[in-house]
UniProtKB/TrEMBL annotation:
This is Cupin. The lineage of its organism: Bacteria, Bacillati, Bacillota, Bacilli, Bacillales. CDD domains: cupin_KdgF. Residues 18-83 form the Cupin type-2 domain. InterPro entries: Bacilysin_H2HPP_isomerase (IPR052535), Cupin_2 (IPR013096), KdgF (IPR025499), RmlC-like_jellyroll (IPR014710), RmlC_Cupin_sf (IPR011051). It comes from the Bacteria.
Length: 94
């Protein structure tokens, strides 16, 4: 299960709070916006352009523009995703 809440969307920066259930494996994603993901709760494995990284509470993951990436949730988690520029596709969903 995925729950998203847009916390801020001002200027060229967007902050989105994402809650993911344990065992969730996202589809491979790719977008032109740069992204930084901060792990607020839980444990995840990020794969960015074929490189896997285990992240715990307090860790961050930088995702460059147009990089293929995927997240797998090992323990129920809350992630703060910061995008620049703003992801219009996420705004269009609300």
């Amino acid at each position: 299960m995925v729950t998203r809440e847009i916390l801020s969307s001002q200027g060229s920066v967007m902050v989105v709070k994402v809650q993911l259930a344990e065992g969730f494996a996202g589809d491979v994603d790719q977008h032109p916006e740069e992204q930084v993901s901060y792990i607020e709760k839980g444990q995840v494995e990020f794969e960015v352009d074929g490189h896997k990284t285990m992240l715990n509470v307090g860790d961050t993951q930088y995702i460059p523009s147009n990089s293929k990436h995927q997240v797998k949730v090992l323990k129920e988690c809350t992630i703060l995703d910061i995008f620049t520029p703003i992801r219009q596709d996420l705004l269009d969903k609300i």
